[in-house]
Specification:
single chain, 624 residues, alpha/beta, 5-stranded mixed beta sheet, 9% strand
Amino acid sequence: MASKPGILTDWPWKPLGSFKYLILAPWVLHSIYSFITKDGKERSLPYLLIFPSIFWRMLHNQIWISFSRYRTANGKNRIVDKSIEFEQVDRESNWDDQVILSGIVFYVVYMTFSGVPHMPLWRTDGVILTILLHTGPVEFLYYWLHRALHHHYLYLHYHSHHHSSIVTEPISSVIHPFAEHLAYFLLFSIPQLTTILMGKSSVVAIVGYITYIDFMNNMGHCNFEMIPRTVFSAFALLKYLMYTPSYHSLHHTEIRTNYSLFMPIYDYIFGTMNKSSDLLYEKSLKQPEEIPDVVHLTHLVTPQSIYHLRLGFTSLASKPYTSKWYIRALWPLAFSVMLTWTHGRSYILERNRFNKFNIQTWVVPKFKKQYLSEWRNESINSLIEEAILKADKNGIKVLSLGLFNQGDELNRYGELYILRNPKLKTKVVDGSSLAVAVVLNKIPEGTTQVFFRGNLSKVAYFVSSALCQMGIQVVTSHKDEYEKLNAKLKNIECGNKLVVSQRYDEKVWLVGDGLTKEEQLKASKGTLFIPFAQFPPKKWRKDCLYHTTPAMMSPKSFQNIDSCENWLPRRAMSASRVAGVIHALEGWNVDECGNTMFNVEKIWEASLRHGFRPLPILTGSYYH
């Protein structure tokens, strides 16, 4: 939002929320109906193509968003080394409003000008005229409009909203108040309306011009340099006709320079070109790929979860993962992406910085159901081992295993990779000790008994052991679970602290994978469900509380967190991810995998000392 928002700041359809796309529905349906029912000569191809052109703009912008976030995650050619936080993501979440506005404008122009319905696909003279009109009037007028927007009044009430983003992403390019967008639309309509009035317009000229504007806008707001030196060496005059991401980045960091739209020639003519433009360009090209100190290796939850990654839809990634009907409708695209990744490698998803440590999250391109198929174990282990060896080769200190990348049946909680590669310098951490500490500290003070239900794991055994030693009774309804726990705890004096019962009246339930709906329905009102597993249980009770999976809130100084880790709330991090960071910060030169459990109290104290905090039961943890 601008410092002091002026009139026409908000978009007219803001109250509609996600239903804003319905504004275009009457035109879209009418265009399809008209094309189907009318005869050949009466049909209007331009009218029908308006909706596909709108969809193309959405797809084009999304490609740039994903590409940009992928590139900035590894740090190569980065321009501004600062972080993006949730505040910027929220401010830029309405980037598609300008696409809706363009659709409205297209439909209004179609109904207003008689020549548009029968516009040809291509006219050479119209394309040339469009290029000339953009190079001259549009670029010139934009330069002076942009300078005017930096006048104190207009900047304070309008343009400061755009400049709130110091570190820009492609979508930052279209984040302006509604009134400012109207001015831009009038400006960019000059070539289009001129060619229409002169009868020289074509579908290719209009769609191509809009695509050019989107391409240059997105490219110029990337936070990495991508234009190689060879381009300007081969075409020396091109530096006056095409800006670069680093050129426009200076406008966001120093404000009073580099006002040009896409062609820097006007900055050169009017003396507003930043003298450090060439220097920053060269510096950005030399910026090497970032080598992290810590890596967290995770994987996809479902095929549709690719849309919830920070490389996917930013608005979804910035909120805890939930399954939505319109995302499930996109499963064919998700499936095609997964097929592409079937034989792929892990890739960089996110970069963070904390206490001078560089931290990255890598993703194995597999999802939950694949991990549950034993016949896929070999291929999954190969991908995980490949990532570990890559981390070791790059000198990474610690690699933590997230979600099902650690498992008894898959890799004995990571021990398999240590045995296969005894000379590994990178320490492999499953985070089980911190997960145990988190679960234990979620149990309300004064609790005397807990109900234990779910598939048993390393964390489950150590939690039950700690509870028995604390004098808290552990109750299970399954005989086989009791026998397995009793066998593991045979060296601990449990007395009557481990029992079998089917009363289901305990107020605290420790749950893992395998908890059923029927079992949840047997819990008494007000029961607190505390997961010890990697995945949360499905919530079936409105009158009970559900805690998150083992996780902690990150300190405010933990930088560049702009997306949620799966179902966790904003700035929350899984225990395995936090554990890897803590091991690196403390310099603990030990692996935590297999049956090895690090000192629970020690890692809990260290995490608190470094600013990580327990995750409260948040509003909305009830069934929803």
